[in-house]
Amino acid sequence: MIEVRRARDRDRTAEPGTGIESRHAFSFGARYDPDNVRFGLLLACNEERLAPGAGFAEHPHRDTEIVTWVLEGELEHRDGDGRTVRLGPGGLQRLSAGGGVRHEERNAGRTPLRFLQMWLHPDTFGGPPDYAAAADPAPPGPGLRLLASGADSPDPAPPLRLRQRAAALYVGRPLTAGSGPLPAAPFVYVHGVRGRLRLGDHVLEPGDAARLRDEPGTSVRWPGAAEFLVWEMHAEPSYG
Q1: Are the CB atoms for 51 and 19 separated by under 8 Å?
Q2: Among 86, 105, 178, 206, which residue's beta carbon has the most beta carbons within 10 A?
Q3: Sign of the C-alpha dihedral, residues 64, 69, 71, 75?
Q4: CA-derived radius of gyration, the chain
Q5: Do 191 and 228 touch, CB atoms closer than 8 A?
Q6: Within this chain, do residues 41 and 110 fall inside the same structural domain, yes or no?
Q7: 218 in a domain, yes or no?
Q8: Which residues form the domain of 129?
Q9: What is the predicted pLDDT for the residue at 238?
Q10: Which among 134, 158, 192 is the end of a domain?
C-alpha cells in the first residue's frame, strides 16, 4: 500500500509575533489526530520555518531520537552540556534524548531558516543523552546515501548512529534525471524537499510525503534535480 499525504494538508501552527511557523506531517502537540499519530517508528516529521533571531527556547525531551536536516539558513543548537553547534544547508544532527535532556534551537543567521525535524521511537528507554552532528555529509550527487542508522554493521558506516536498530535514514540529492530503488522494508517513508518525484502512479511535489507499507521493489524516479529523505523501518514501537 502507498499512501500519499500532500503538503497542503499538513497541520500548521504559528504563534503571532514569534517568527515561528510549523507544518506537521503527523498528529503533534495540541493538533491531535488519533488516526495519524505515527508511521512505523516515525513519530513526527515537522517542517520548521524560523525568521532571523527566532527560535525555540530551552525545553525538555526524553526517550526520543530527534533527527534534524537543515534545508535553508543556519540552525543553532544549544544544550544542557554547554554545547553550541551551528549547521547550514545539508547539515544533519541527531539528539538522543535518553533519560532526559534540555536544549534550544534558533535561527542564528540573517536569512529565514527552514529545517525538517523528525522524531523516532528508540529501541531502549533511559540512559544518558547523546548528541552528534555532521556538516553536509551528503553533498548533491547520484543515488541514495545513508545518513543515519542503528543497525549493528551497516556498510558503509553512516555519518550518524541511531539508538534504533530497526531504522535508517537516507537522502537523495540528484542533480540530473534518474531513478533508483527504495529500501525493502515493511515501512518506508519518503518526504519530498525539492523537485518532483514519482513512485509508480504517484507524483510527489515538495512537502508531499509517501507512506509505503509492505511494498518491496518500489522505485523512485525524478525528472531533474531533486532532494528527498527516505526512512527505512523494520519494526513498530515496542514498550515492553
Answers
A1: yes
A2: 105
A3: positive
A4: 17
A5: yes
A6: yes
A7: yes
A8: 11-134
A9: 84
A10: 134
